[in-house]
Automatic annotation (TrEMBL):
PANTHER family per the UniProt record, alphabetical: PHOSPHOTRANSFERASE SYSTEM TRANSPORT PROTEIN, PTS SYSTEM TREHALOSE-SPECIFIC EIIBC COMPONENT
Keyword flag Membrane: yes
Protein name: PTS maltose transporter subunit IIBC
GO molecular function, one term: trehalose transmembrane transporter activity
Keywords from the named record: Cell membrane, Kinase, Membrane, Phosphotransferase system, Sugar transport, Transferase, Transmembrane, Transmembrane helix, Transport
Taxonomy of the source species: Bacteria, Bacillati, Bacillota, Bacilli, Bacillales
Entry annotation: catalytic residues: C27
Membrane-crossing segments per the record: 109-129, 158-180, 187-207, 227-246, 258-282, 302-322, 342-363, 375-395, 402-422, 442-463
Biological process annotations from GO: phosphoenolpyruvate-dependent sugar phosphotransferase system
SUPFAM superfamilies: Glucose permease domain IIB
Location of the PTS EIIC type-1 domain: 107-478
Matching InterPro entries: Glu_permease_IIB, PTrfase_EIIB_Cys, PTS_EIIC, PTS_EIIC_1, PTS_IIB_1, PTS_IIBC_treh, PTS_Sugar-Specific_Components
């Protein structure tokens, strides 16, 4: 008999039975349910199941944290429940019935940027490594870099830029592809659209100010400047949305006999034209405003206050799903400033949550059953995956979550107060230091120590003094 039979039976019973399940799927650590009646799910009973590490509702989906065993558990569960295997995309579509307008907007934004994150993480690590070997003077009495004294490392430095350039300069290609994929338009045409924004024949937008002459397309009655939108986020999003809208509308009105010819042409060509005449300039301006506002806020006299608020509330934002909006801001800051001072605070918040769990491991060191949940949760949190730690431990007890928020606040103030910048989005935990620009690595390491020590100490103090023992039962089931 499978070891998952009894837990699966209990979960099915307490979630309201098969008739209450509209859609079920799973990700790396969680079962994801779209329920016909969310009120029928008995959260307290579900969380008493030994295999379950926590529950929460996000994006219209009721999610049950299982851990690394979720794939095997899922297979047994769907057999017992009598429901069919369902894709994540089908689950997302079904979940929208439980989402309001703001939640749908955030969900769309997340669907655009989530597929890009692996590339951005790799790119951040590569840029960080290039900076270490190319900018930090480690050799010959602190006068030369590795690149300056070694032909091998000089070659590595030059070679890695091939990947870094592909990820960041040509980012609009990934964005237009992701938008087309999300909207259900032709993905290959989305890629083509992105390439028309970053083509080598276009003048790099960042070189316009220093250019003696800007090339242009001459149509006789009008001229269009040949300016690219390398590394730009908003122009690519706008172009992708317009293209997808045109294609989807044309599919409905153009006869099938000629749609293969007419639809791609009438959707792609006008979009490319609009992108270079209207969408690009407008998107560039909007992006500049966003990055200027955020950067000005973080570097102003009240930057410490912004950092304190962001550091304190970021973890609760993860519960609601609003944290997905930071991806677009990070990418815009990277394109405008060559780095982001927002992302380091996110990495510090994740570290703080892991440190609170570490304290709970110490407190419950004699509880073998608790350690089976908390040790993997702490490890994954330090590597940037926070859900098992937050929902399986910290929100369950309440006071570790509060301790982590306070530690994140202090660490964020140190980071912003020292003007710490990351090359890009990276691994959102301890390895995130590799994405930090070299001259800020030392102070970021200090902020990391703070994000480890304060939550650890506060969690132990709260546990001993019975302080901060707040019930988060309701907050975990808030629909987000």
């Amino acid at each position: 008999m499978s070891k998952y039979k009894e837990p699966a039976k209990d979960l099915l019973k307490h979630i309201g039975g098969s008739n209450n399940i509209s859609v079920v799927t799973h990700c790396a650590t969680r079962m994801r349910f779209v329920l016909n009646d969310p009120e029928k799910a008995d959260i307290d009973k579900i969380e008493e199941i030994q295999l379950v590490k926590g529950t929460f509702t996000q994006g219209g989906q009721f999610q049950v944290i299982i851990g690394n065993e979720v794939s095997s558990f899922y297979n047994d569960f769907i057999k017992m429940a009598g429901v069919s295997d369902t894709s994540k995309e089908e689950a997302k579509v079904a979940a929208k019935q439980n989402m309001n307008v703001l939640q749908r907007m955030i969900s769309h934004l997340a669907d655009i940027f989530t597929p890009l994150i692996p590339a951005l993480v790799v790119g951040g690590l590569i840029l960080g490594f290039r900076n270490v070997i190319g900018d930090i003077k480690l050799l010959e009495g602190g006068t030369k870099t590795l690149v300056e004294v070694s032909q091998f490392w000089s070659g590595v430095h030059a070679f890695l830029w091939l990947i870094g350039e592909a990820i960041f300069h040509f980012l609009p290609v990934g964005i237009t592809w992701a938008v087309a994929r999300k909207m259900g338009a032709s993905q290959i045409l989305g890629i083509v659209l992105g390439i028309t924004l970053v083509s080598p024949q276009l003048l790099n937008a960042y070189g316009v100010a220093g250019a003696t002459e800007i090339p242009f397309w001459d149509f006789g009655f009008a001229k269009i400047e040949m300016i690219g939108y390398q590394a730009q986020v908003i122009p690519a999003i706008l172009a992708g949305l317009v293209f997808s809208f045109l294609e989807l509308k044309l599919r409905k009105v153009v006869p099938n006999a000629i749609s293969m010819i007419v639809v791609p042409f009438l959707s792609l060509v006008p979009t490319v034209l609009l992108a270079h005449i209207v969408l690009g300039p407008i998107g560039w301006q909007i992006g500049s405003w966003v990055s200027d506002i955020v950067y000005s806020g973080l570097t102003s006299a009240f930057g410490w206050l912004f950092a304190a608020v962001f550091g304190f509330v970021y973890a609760p934002l993860v519960i609601t799903g609003l944290h997905h909006m930071t991806n677009a801001i990070d990418l815009q800051l990277m394109s405008e400033l060559g780095g982001t001072n927002l992302w380091p605070m996110i990495a510090l918040s994740n570290i703080a949550q892991g440190s609170a769990v570490l304290a709970m491991i110490f407190i419950n060191r004699k509880d073998e059953e608790e350690k089976q949940v908390s040790i993997p949760a702490a490890i994954s949190c330090y590597l940037g995956v926070t859900e098992p730690a937050m929902f399986g431990i910290n929100l369950k007890y309440g006071f570790p979550f509060l301790a982590a928020m306070i530690g994140s606040l202090v660490a964020a103030v140190i980071s912003v107060g020292s003007n710490v910048m990351a090359n890009s989005i990276g691994v959102g935990g301890i390895p995130g230091i590799l994405s930090i620009q070299p001259k800020y690595m030392t102070v970021f390491a200090l902020a990391m120590v703070v994000a480890i020590v304060i939550p650890f100490v506060l969690t132990i103090i709260f546990a001993k003094t019975n302080t901060g023992k707040i019930s988060f039962k309701k907050s975990r089931s808030i629909k987000a």
